[in-house]
Amino acid sequence: MRFGAAVLRSYGAPFTVEEVRLDAGPAEGEVLVRIAGCGMCRTDLAVRRSAGRSPLPAVLGHEGAGVVVETGGPDTGLSPGDHVVIGFDSCGHCRGCLAGSPAYCDRFAELNLFGGRPEHAGRFTDASGGALAPRWFGQSAFAAYAMVPARNAVRVDPSLPLELLGPLGCGFLTGAGAVLNSFGAGPGDTVAVFGAGAVGLAAVMAATAAGAVAVAVDRHPERLAFAEKLNAIPVHAASAGLPDRIRRLTDGGARYALDTTGSGRLINDALRALRPLGHLGLVARLHTPLALEPGTLDRGRRVSHICEGDAVPGLLVPRLTGLWRAGLFPFDRLIRTYPLADINAAERDCEAGLVVKPVLIP
């Protein structure tokens, strides 16, 4: 079949929207999904800085949502017409997957970042027959259609706004999952979130939905104003004595902190803002060595890396849509939609901080 997709042909080039070809229908355990909308995540854009490790040319996009149009075999658990949110790929067989932690799959990097499944090579080509990378994050959803492993697809209620749901499979899942799963935050807890982008604001919404007090730290006044509308206490990242200020606002220190920035300075500030036995979670990829200042890990404080919100998407996505229905997780307020043809404008706006979460509509 032939359909339109946004192709990234080189690390420094713009996306080109062109016709691509899928040479086979769903294999056993796969489903073909007609994409209703796909979020643009900073991980998609980070391919440009991947030092050639992610193969190109490729169709990126890993926050897709759409309608199942065809299934491979009778055991997918899905049927044509089902509305689905598509998550990340995993092998389903390693210790991490069997323990209910698919984000820590032994093959996570291979399957999601570095070329997908080798057995799928050659199935996905451009209009002239040139090979495209087999699959990005198990979906390659900057396109009108995506072929995905059935276990990556989470069935959702068809009354939900399907075109907006894709980011629940990654960006919003990561921030919300960090708070709800990794921290287990609840009433009476305090959560300091460093970076008020898509992941950080999802964490803010999840914290307030759980009954915790959220503090949002950012350097952009408009992001702080947005966080305040979501019931967070806004604090400018350049505030003098930032850790002391957060400790005052949280009655002696935050119980939890989440860093989405990857900034060594802010990570040290976050640790200093914690109360004894506090927990700092890191979700951003570090690009330079992290030097922890003396005293930051004293008194039982700890730091851990959190991948994909420690989530099982099939459990967390329905929880988040339920919170949205209850008015407690208004993720749609973070979204601006763009036609897929305007993907380069969406990337520019995302990089400039003009939009929290772009969603591309094929």
Q: What key phrases describe this protein's structure?
A:
Quinone Oxidoreductase, Chain A, domain 1; 2 domains; alpha/beta; 362 residues; 26% strand; Rossmann fold; 10 helices; single chain; globular; seven-stranded mixed β-sheet; six-stranded parallel β-sheet
**What is the CATH topology assignment of the largest domain?**
Quinone Oxidoreductase, Chain A, domain 1
Number of helices: 10
Note the overall shape: globular
User: Which strand-content bin applies to the residues?
Assistant: 25-35%
Number of strands: 17
Classify the helix fraction into a percent range: 10-25%
How would you classify the helix and strand content by structural class?
A: alpha/beta
Radius of gyration: 20 Å
CATH architecture of the largest domain: Alpha-Beta Complex
Run of helices and strands: EEEHEEEHHEEEHEHEHEHEHEEHEHE
Fourth-tier CATH superfamily name of the largest domain? Medium-chain alcohol dehydrogenases, catalytic domain
Which helices and strands occur, and which strands form pairs?
Blueprint: E1 2-8, E2 15-22, E3 30-39, H1 42-45, E4 58-59, E5 64-71, E6 83-86, H2 95-98, H3 108-112, E7 124-126, E8 145-149, E9 153-156, H4 171-183, E10 190-194, H5 198-209, E11 213-218, H6 221-229, E12 233-236, H7 242-249, E13 254-259, H8 264-272, E14 274-282, E15 302-305, H9 313-325, E16 335-339, H10 343-351, E17 357-361
Helix pairs in contact: 4-5
Domain Alcohol dehydrogenase-like C-terminal: 198-306
Pfam families: ADH_N, ADH_zinc_N
Keywords: Membrane, Metal-binding, Oxidoreductase, Transmembrane, Transmembrane helix, Zinc
